[in-house]
Write a structure and sequence with these properties.
The complex is a heterodimer. Chain A is mainly alpha-helical. Chain A is built from 13 helices and 2 strands; from the N terminus they run ααββααααααααααα. Chain A has one domain (73-308): MetI-like (MetI-like fold), CATH 1.10.3720.10. Chain A is flat. Chain B is an alpha/beta fold. Chain B folds into 2 domains: 43-63 and 70-190 and 351-401, D-Maltodextrin-Binding Protein, domain 2 (3-Layer(aba) Sandwich), CATH 3.40.190.10; 193-349 and 427-468, D-Maltodextrin-Binding Protein, domain 2, CATH 3.40.190.10. In chain B, the strands form 5 sheets. Chain B has a 5-stranded mixed sheet, with helices on both faces. Chain B has a 3-stranded antiparallel sheet with strand order 10-7-11. Chain B has a two-stranded antiparallel sheet with strand order 4-5. In chain B, strand 8 (254-257) and strand 9 (262-265) form a beta hairpin. The chains are: A mainly alpha, B alpha/beta. Chains A and B meet through helix 2, strand 1 and helix 12 of A and helix 1, helix 5, helix 12, helix 18 and helix 19 of B.
Amino acid sequence: MNLSSSAPTPRSPGLVSRIGNFIDRTFQYWTIAPLVITLLLLVAYPSVQLLRMSVSEVDIVKGQTVWTFVGAKHLETALQDPVVPVAFKNTLVFVIAVVIIETILSLLISILVSRSHHLVGLYRTVLLIPLLVPPIAIGTMWRLMYDYNYGFINQALALIGIAGPTWTASPKLAMPSIILVDLWHWTSFMFLIILAGLESQPVELNEAARVDGATETQILRYITLPLLRPTLVTAVMLRTIFAFKVFDEIFLLTGGGPGTATEVISLYIYKVFSGQFRLGYASFLALALALIISVFVIFYRRLAQRTTA
Amino acid sequence: MNPRPLKKVKQGLLSTLSLLVVVSFLLTACGTTATTEAPAPTQAATEGSPATQAPATVEAPTATEEPKPLPAITILINESPWLAGFEALVNKYVEETGNPVNLNRTPFNGMLEKSRNAVQASESEFDILTLNEQWYMQFYADGLVTPIKEIKPSFELDPQIIEYEWATRWDPALGYSSQNGELYGLPINGNIMLFFYRKDLFEANGLAAPQTWADVEAAAQALKNDEMAGYVVRANPPNWEFQAFLASYGGNVIKLDEQTGEWEVNLNSPEALAALTTWLKLGRDYGPANYADNGQAEMIALMASGKIPQMVLVGASAPDFDNPEKSIVIGNVAAVPVPGSEAGMNATMSGIWVMGIPHNLPDERKQAALTFLEWALSKDAQLFYAQAGAIPVRQDVYEEMANDPKRGWWMKAMADSTPFIHAQPRLAETPQIIEVLDRRLKQALIAEITPEQALLEGAKEIHKILTDAGYKVKPLAD
């Protein structure tokens, strides 16, 4: 009698069972795979196309798109293009101005609203209104308000005997006029984020500090602002990204003028792409803008990590 | 770990995924249906006004009663001051022929994008594209619209139709619009510039209608006061008006030597400097305080509100000065051809719209589109078009309309301007050239750079644009 042959041997797992185990082990990946693949395609495909276009000339001949690889030609064109440095400089001036002013303004307003015990809902609603108005309407509205002859601002100034300036026609005033419109439009965005950050702070800390004899200024300096820092970094990062992409207001208010006083890079990309139909060069400029924004995003992320640490 | 909740989660996720897949399929199916439907009925349902659709009786004719109507055509048309006139023309066509027409009315800013998208599709959704002066050469050069004689070999353009320095033609060998080029587009709106002035103020001050820029300056000096500027230049964008000044001094931005096929960039010429100096002087010294910020709409408002006594503007703005809802100077505005550097050197710039038939259409649709265009350019149709407030494109119509009690005052100026029509640069690279011109002229206007710098730097940039595009270009003059 062969004992070994009679002993019950453990059954090797069947194919179905092995597949079942495999599915069990990897189930979570399968479930999210469609979403991940879709998102990757949605992000990756346009990015690759943008990259491809930025090193190509793209023409439409007889309805067919004709791609010609040109290597670094667009970089060379950009370096010789007299508008590019002006547009980047103006963009940077605009971004720095609006991000700093809007952060300070929205921080002040948020602190005041968060400490207010009356009409908080009303303040919030009123301050939210500019964010709800479409940029196209904002541009048109301010264009009418800034109008030298018929605008509300100059007419109001005339009532008190002041001759209003040419808000959008003066090279010195055009950019500040645009920045003012942007402050009106976007401060509420920063306000909302910062207010949310303030309202999520534990009140016990403030109360404990008060019991320990801290003044309101000390509470703000040593408790509120340090706790708010991660929120502030996020808000500033988002606002910086949006500010780099400013288009509507400038397109409607000045079209980049007078001269090149308010020419920003997004507007120039639009002109190159849509007006001149230089798809390759416009893509290169768009890629350059995306890279610059990425540098800022990396900087803010590092800042956020340091803050959290 | 309890496997039951995990199993439930898996089941839930699978159900959700299945649902998503089904919804995706449904959405995809709906999308496919929408895009594969014939575009014309969709247009008719969503965009065509009842007035522009064929009458009900035309839609179901019997074979023995009347000839079968042509297929419905869809025209991409810009929303502009002359749209109402064009709509009236289309209504008349539908009424007379029974051929249905749909209009896709689009603001100026979306016209180019829609046109480009249409010619890139497997079949264009539009049967006729309305192309602006600064765009159509790209469509001609790249073969995106069909040569008219390819559709109808016997087609001959009526000599009364103004060709606006061959805006209708394209010569592939030269890469330029020239008299010997092939016919690609047909004009539909004859916008050119006119010189508008307040005849009541001129008469009161003993001034005659200006014929030269010196006359214009003298009038500006005489009429400028605290309430009224003496002249206003168009600063947004400035290139069009400046080119009229330039042509009136005998200059040009670029010029083709048809013998050698070489291009000359002449923006840094003495003629250009004289033209720019005059333009800047009139704009700065006699203009309103916001002289660097006025576009067409602002200029119309200035004239209509009595704040400016004279200006150069597109002929199509004339009806605004007779509109009691807009104007306080009704009956007091007159028009003449744009003045010159000296008498007889008048120059006006073409700023017309042409209609082109996309390359990617079946022959039946191309024929239907051309049938409409031939009808629309006939003398009777153009007379009706002019009376409906649009800008015709026939010389005989302008001459006849010169006696019209309502519109004669500016139609005569249009008729008189025909010999002085000049074309803007007409190359595939024109948008780039125009961008340079606009930027440099604006910089000169606000004194960011000197006139000499503006012209020289502009000339260098245009020279580079042409050289990079592969044209033979003569070296820049010192």
